[in-house]
Amino acid sequence: xxxxxxxxxxxxxxxxxxxxxxxxxxxxxxxxxxxxxxxxxxxxxxxxxxxxxxxxxxxxxxxxxxxxxxxxxxxxxxxxxxxxxxxxxxxxxxxxxxxxxxxxxxxxxxxxxxxxxxxxxxxxxxxxxxxxxxxxxxxxxxxxxxxxxxxxxxxxxxxxxxxxxxxxxxxxxxxxxxxxxxxxxxxxxxxxxxxxxxxxxxxxxxxxxxxxxxxxxxxxxxxxxxxxxxxxxxxxxxxxxxxxxxxxxxxxxxxxxxxxxxxxxxxxxxxxxxxxxxxxxxxxxxxxxxxxxxxxxxxxxxxxxxxxxxxxxxxxxxxxxxxxxxxxxxxxxxxxxxxx
Amino acid sequence: xxxxxxxxxxxxxxxxxxxxxxxxxxxxxxxxxxxxxxxxxxxxxxxxxxxxxxxxxxxxxxxxxxxxxxxxxxxxxxxxxxxxxxxxxxxxxxxxxxxxxxxxxxxxxxxxxxxxxxxxxxxxxxxxxxxxxxxxxxxxxxxxxxxxxxxxxxxxxxxxxxxxxxxxxxxxxxxxxxxxxxxxxxxxxxxxxxxxxxxxxxxxxxxxxxxxxxxxxxxxxxxxxxxxxxxxxxxxxxxxxxxxxxxxxxxxxxxxxxxxxxxxxxxxxxxxxxxxxxxxxxxxxxxxxxxxxxxxxxxxxxxxxxxxxxxxxxxxxxxxxxxxxxxxxxxxxxxxxxxx
Amino acid sequence: xxxxxxxxxxxxxxxxxxxxxxxxxxxxxxxxxxxxxxxxxxxxxxxxxxxxxxxxxxxxxxxxxxxxxxxxxxxxxxxxxxxxxxxxxxxxxxxxxxxxxxxxxxxxxxxxxxxxxxxxxxxxxxxxxxxxxxxxxxxxxxxxxxxxxxxxxxxxxxxxxxxxxxxxxxxxxxxxxxxxxxxxxxxxxxxxxxxxxxxxxxxxxxxxxxxxxxxxxxxxxxxxxxxxxxxxxxxxxxxxxxxxxxxxxxxxxxxxxxxxxxxxxxxxxxxxxxxxxxxxxxxxxxxxxxxxxxxxxxxxxxxxxxxxxxxxxxxxxxxxxxxxxxxxxxxxxxxxxxxx
Amino acid sequence: xxxxxxxxxxxxxxxxxxxxxxxxxxxxxxxxxxxxxxxxxxxxxxxxxxxxxxxxxxxxxxxxxxxxxxxxxxxxxxxxxxxxxxxxxxxxxxxxxxxxxxxxxxxxxxxxxxxxxxxxxxxxxxxxxxxxxxxxxxxxxxxxxxxxxxxxxxxxxxxxxxxxxxxxxxxxxxxxxxxxxxxxxxxxxxxxxxxxxxxxxxxxxxxxxxxxxxxxxxxxxxxxxxxxxxxxxxxxxxxxxxxxxxxxxxxxxxxxxxxxxxxxxxxxxxxxxxxxxxxxxxxxxxxxxxxxxxxxxxxxxxxxxxxxxxxxxxxxxxxxxxxxxxxxxxxxxxxxxxxx
Lengths: 340, 340, 340, 340
Hints:
homotetramer, alpha/beta, seven-stranded mixed beta sheet
């Protein structure tokens, strides 16, 4: 028997999602976003964030991130991001391609979280002249790649510093729901109230088939985005099917229910791991310094998970999916307790 | 009452498609194309084309076309295409963006079909030196943007000429099924047997939710494509849901059933239009030179359709969707007969 | 004996240019444009144009054009230009590369000159939506590729139309001096007074070693340009040597003297050509419909010149260089008179 | 009185260079590299390197580097370079722009020199999948940005490792002559014999007006380069003037004479600096940890030099120009001795 903790991308779509597709599947409607579902996205997400926003559906998180970044930086710009960021490691150079060449400047800080001090130091050290790349964007992840979450005041301080230095702030929210569920805050508290300019609002990992929204808190950036999205092949012709997923995801409360469940399971696993735990568990990911022997033991016991970084480090990542079978987490917990 | 002939993108998804999604919606499976559905795409489409192919799922036709073109031309290349081509008029400059700057050279020829003579003349007239763009790709559409279809021998002659002159051949098959249905040929006859290098195999317009496949008949081009697809945000994490649509589309015979129905209805409309018909009806599109008065009359009667080109020309396009209500085509035919 | 009428790029540098280099060749001075010569460029060209301008030295006309265009259009933009334009035919796709994918829309009109009517028709015919490329720039050449010159009022009308439709106007002035010399007008009359936004001010063809200036009449566009120039490797470290050429070119009156000489010789040749003349001679180029027999005769007599377009048309181009030997033009005139 | 140690870009052109320009300044010759000077470049540099090479003139080092890199990496590639590399810090993002988005992966190692161990570790740590950027190029500088030089065997080991891992090797040789002069080796020993694929062979800093050559030791890469160079506006129309500089630079022995002089003066300064010296002096650059007080003292005494990195570190760079006045180095040495 295998218990799969590879990634939340391995999950199915929630029943609410398929129901939304079926419900949307009636009648001829205008294409390319002029349908009633897509037209309701702005309202739906403005209510969700308690602020007027513009929201655009796309099919992948890479598209959401890279298209956002392209509206925020010229080709001679620099994007500051944590060295563990998805845009740096897992998107095959998408930021460079979409921006026409912008470079990433990678920051080191504990637990996947950029700190104000680290950002300030990087900006101070970045020479500024016609010969250098121009600081343009601070790109954060919420929750982070290491399963941690920025508190509203941490985010506010980072955004203030970024804006003071002329940067825009983009947030990769592939696991945004997990962060909000953990922080037990309002979605607005970790976006526009903190100063975020653009958010990739993910739904795929948390129960959708394939649906992400790019949410702009600054409407001036929107026209350029719309044209870039089309040019990059990310404007869907039958847009209703992605919009319907996003609407149902938000309006049914699925976003929070699923995130709460996976967070809870992850925290239980984290607690069972004792000193093996590498980072606080503030989302649905658990990072464990298992070492080679324990890795082998768990894999032989049927647990599937990724090495984190090189296999030789013995470090690993476990991700809880929204539809993780009920018995998987207790089994992993029991196995960990036995190993300790 | 409105009868909608705007576009086949206005249609719903076929029941077979939603059934395929439901059926795929079980269990945790590897992400990013390592699932069983995606892994079966090559086999499924190799059988379909009766040749070994490599097939890659993407969500939009623009992505399929532009990613293909990017594997076939350097940034200093030229893509030859008919002046009515989708890549020239309806993709917001996607070919230029994906290729890093390649230019389109647009060809004029009747009924949306590039001819051997026109292509040869364009190639002869294109200066060749280090100062000029380099002829790289012949990009065709099958069926064409004007609802016509290349015969296998026409396509073969074009491919031969292109290859002789050092060009690769890419085909936009957003309505590939309609062309094959009209020609009553084998899918291989208008692809690899004729010399086509890469095909955008469309399913969305003909009954899928959102599913296209890029089909390579030359495996050497594949690695570059895979990396470009990921970099462009077009590798879907939950790939099974697009792959499942494509498999069902082909294996259930939906591709042909739907295309036959829409072709038949379009031909009936075309016959009713008499001298107003602008191009042969060889797919699911009917182009009519209605003039202002007839346009007004049809719109008042509840028919929705696009002006083709500037409104002042009086030219129009009607597209039959796979789920066009049964009564729409007869109603349009009756209305046309009354107008004539 | 050969008499070379291939191109003005075959010419030498004028003595004034080498003298300027020698004069600048003293002492250690700041690099990358902070030297006294480069710092004086704005003033020099502001005086020349009788308006406050910002001027930037680059080494080639292709760089001047493509960098200018990149500041004026997004990657999803369209640049309208005459089908004979240098940017369309002789720069290996530079506009596409520098802009990240912008497309050229090529206009047909007599004698290489875009007309208001042709531009208006092209803009009217260009569909405008999120699916299409966005009209961004009108790119003209002064003098044109066919050796003709826009009158101030023609240029003014084109600029007004372009601006009314939201386009910027860029002018390729590789032979700007020839146009001004022919029109006998003030340089401002065919630039800012007519509404031109950016000019590639060429000196290389007219006597410099390698020196062009990009002249902005709208200072808001300048910062982006400076960064793009550096990023494209077109900011010269020892900038003084290009700036010194440009200063001497303008301040010594060389620009006008050389242009007047080559214009005069070209006009004499044009007059001798009678009905063979294809376009009015308004710069230093003469286009002749010689036919195969006369081509052969002239080449056997030692005249070197390019076929214009395909050799089979019998059409040819003769360009007078600023340092064309005194005897070449009379010899060509005599040869032509003999042939007629 | 000021003594300028800012940069070797502040220097003049050597008399040999102006003489070469004058000598080339006769007669109408074919443009764009078909002239006799440019045609002789391959032979001249093949002799210089004692191997068949293809050599291409460009006007700037940034162009030489970025165009080379663009021939060696796709847009989804990674270029490994030392964190002090010119391409990383001083070219405004040129590598990203020219390659269409490739990213830099910056390596830390003492004295500006990439080590085999550091490169191996970086390659081992770089995840390799369709989700990641693809290791493509090792970009080195010889001499390095910190004025040190790779020994032939060091370079050979780095090239071997790079090739074994599928990377090409590009070398920024803006100060190549200084490295060869210091190593007292044959130019081939630190290029093709060590395994270098492409070299930016700089002449500007060492006495030319503006002239660099891109030297290919692998002829297969050449056609793509030629087209990219033209497309990027780096093919000079009056090519003879850059080629003539390069020919004279090599054939007159100027390259070695100038490098030997500046190296010698730099070494004398370095020796006088005692413990303030930060890196071995193996070219014409001296890095000194002066601290704020000594900086102030030297500047008040008329010495001009750059802070290296942030001014607060007290670290500084002194560069000796080929035409540095005879009295400058002794004056600096005396001033340093007084300060110690």
